[in-house]
Design a protein that fits this description.
By secondary structure, the protein is mainly alpha-helical. The chain is built from seven helices and three strands. Helix 3 crosses helix 6.
Length: about 140
Amino acid sequence: MYFDQIKEELDARSLQHVKYYDFIHRMDLAYRVADVIVSRAGAATISEVCLLGKPLILVPSPNVAEDHQTKNAMVLVKNNAALMIPDKEAPEKLVFEALTLLHNETQRTELGDNCAKMALKNSTAKIVDEIFKLVNKGEPAG
């Protein structure tokens, strides 16, 4: 939806170091090389980014049940682990905020460090252990 507008604005600035794509097949690789990540605020995405400790700008989707993406984003914002731009403000603010963050190494480091502190490491094993506890009445997995 915003891709054409972002492409036009970034192309006008001739920023060789800024890469943007309408679709990315290998998000794991894209996350690793990104200096700043701009994303919706789904729980899986937030979890992945926090594990990498990357600075994050969240644009929660307004089209989800009970506005849960805004709630997800606010947890990070309150912990100075991400910036948030409401969807309706994104056309006017997103490119400016992203470029501002790209040029502020101190803020990028702070957001990334705080994001990493919120990561839940080994979450898959913890979930499996909880399932086994429920199924086996207290016997943890292997």
